[in-house]
Amino acid sequence: LLRDANTIRTDAAATYGQLRFTAGHFTVTPGLRVEHIRVRNFVFRRGFNDRNATSIQNQTVWLPGLSVSY
Known about the structure:
The chain is mostly beta strands. The protein is about 0% helix and about 80% strand. It has strands at about 5-20, 20-25, 25-45, 50-70. Strands 1, 2, 3 and 4 form a 4-stranded antiparallel beta sheet that branches. The model has no long low-confidence stretch (mean pLDDT about 90).
């Protein structure tokens, strides 16, 4: 390997749930989606000082939603 090289890998998983409530002609639908994302960055450095580095970032996101229809 004569130069630096980066390898980035991203994995994601998501799920959701929702309920439906009806009152007369109105329907209310609250929901919640959850996403978990993991990003891994592998850095391979070559040159005067050979060194490798790895960084891992995890993030969980909660996404609420609400729908009202008539």
